Amino acid sequence: MGFCGAAGAQQRFPPPDFESGYKLPLTTVPPARQQLYEYLDVAVLLAALLLGSYLSLKKRSRRGIFCLMVFSLMYFGFWRKGCVCPIGAIQNIALAFFEPAYAIPTTVIIFFLLPLFFTLFFGRTFCAAVCPLGAIQDVVLVRPLQLPGWLEHTLGLLGYVYLGGAVLFAATGSAFIICQYDPFVSFFRLSGSFEMLVLGGSFLVVGLFVGRAYCRFLCPYGVIMRVLSRFSKWRITITPKDCIQCRLCEESCPFGAIQKPATAPLPHDYRAGKIKLITLFVLAPIIVTVAGRLGMELAEPFSRMHERVRLADRIHMEETGRIEGTDDASEAFRATGGSIAQLYSEAGQIADKFVWGSMLFGGFVGLVVAGKLIGLTVRRSRKDYEADQGRCLACGRCFDYCPVGRAERKVEH
Predict the structure, then answer these.
(1) DSSP bridge pairs for 387
(2) Do residues 235 and 362 touch, judged by C-beta distance below 8 A?
(3) Given this model, what pLDDT does residue 376 score?
(4) Beta bridge partners of 386
(5) Span 257-283, mean pLDDT?
(6) 7 falls in which pLDDT band (50, 70, 90)?
(7) Residue 72 and residue 196: Cα distance in Å, rounded?
(8) Distance of alpha carbon 32 from alpha carbon 321, whole angstroms
(9) Which long-range contacts (CB under 8 A, 24 or more apart) does 162-167 make?
């Protein structure tokens, strides 16, 4: 997952100053065919988003959404090998924001922003029919189970943790963990390590019974879309007209995104809920502060994700006699004649970045937890069955369960 080939951004540094007549290599540009593929990918993405939004909101066709989903799986997944993906682009964007020397191609920025733009207007139609990671899970879903609400909300926090960690490691130039641990790219490329094949296979086995587990509980891009979709201008509705309370849609959603009717709290419950809400607002800064402090405790192990910190640790252990011999990295470093003191200095600067970064990571997780607790405390009244705009993946399954919708389609035909 992520962007490879010409679509991958490059580090740009000034050329070394050699004194022995060294000639700089000629600057090369990506081949025209490769650039053509990049813009073709953008065009296909835009067309798929437009069609997916039309099928979800206007046509209300589950069959059409499914066909588009299969096309996206074949094109963005198996044909392009999962190599052009807004999910992995999170890391490119984070690194480019914190590292001015990192050049990011325009196509990467477009792939990151375009689905988010559509989400603000049409909800999560990208998840419905365009994302190959969601599609490969959707096609194996044969016997969906409804998860308990407490488990749904608890697992939903993992995506925020994953997003925070991905941004932290990308911003510090340590690792692109979203791409490194993409569970499905091995299937798309028909190759990969045994461990990643097992991971992807495990997700697909779970996906037989739990709808889109990766999308719902881990996908960092889905976390961003979950927030933006709550502000979408046009939204998915279960029925095109008034709900007749038939309850047929209640079990239709495998993603736990349909909300049942709910009455307003009684006066006694309202007062108790108000006190609880005020208490949580008071505790929120404390939760964020404590989580930030706990995040700082992770700075040292997190920093070892960076290759320079790992190398400095290895060199230090060799120099102090704590281990004997060298490994490939330390041997290569010693062969260059590099300064050990300078290496230690670089590692120290990187470690300092992780102190602040880990604190922000912990604070972010604490803020999410506090926000989740506050959100669960607020009770909203609903008179009809409604789609939760944050969790709804716009898959259209509920359309065929609604008798009002079926009757309207018969009239149209």
Answers:
(1) 258
(2) no
(3) 87
(4) 259
(5) 83
(6) very low
(7) 22
(8) 53
(9) 162/218, 162/219, 162/220, 162/223, 163/90, 163/220, 163/223, 163/224, 164/361, 164/364, 164/365, 165/361, 166/90, 166/91, 166/94, 166/220, 167/90, 167/91, 167/94, 167/361
Sign of the dihedral through C-alpha 113, 256, 201, 76: negative
Q: What is the DSSP letter of 25?
A: P
166 neighbors 177 (Cβ within 8 angstroms): yes
Burial class (CB in 10 A: 0-12, 13-18, 19+), 326: middle
Instruction: Express each pLDDT in 101-132 by its tens digit.
Output: 888 889 999 999 999 999 999 999 999 999 99
pTM of structure: 0.88
How many CA atoms are closer than 13 Å to the CA of 218, on its beta-carbon side?
12
| pLDDT tens sequence across 175-219 | 999 999 999 999 999 888 899 999 999 999 999 999 999 999 999
User: Is there a contact between 314 and 330 (Cβ–Cβ < 8 Å)?
Assistant: yes
**Among 260, 309, 147, which residue's Cα sits nearest to residue 212?**
147
Number of H helices, E strands in the chain: 18, 4
One-letter amino acid at 240 equals P
Token pair listed for 290: 């404590």
Q: Any idea which residue has 């835009």 for tokens?
A: 46
What phi and psi values does residue 400 have, to the nearest 5 degrees? -75, -15
DSSP per-residue string spanning 236-257 = --SSSS------TTTTT-TTS-
Task: Give Cβ neighbours of residue 207 (< 8 Å, ≥ 6 apart).
Answer: 137, 140, 141, 213, 214
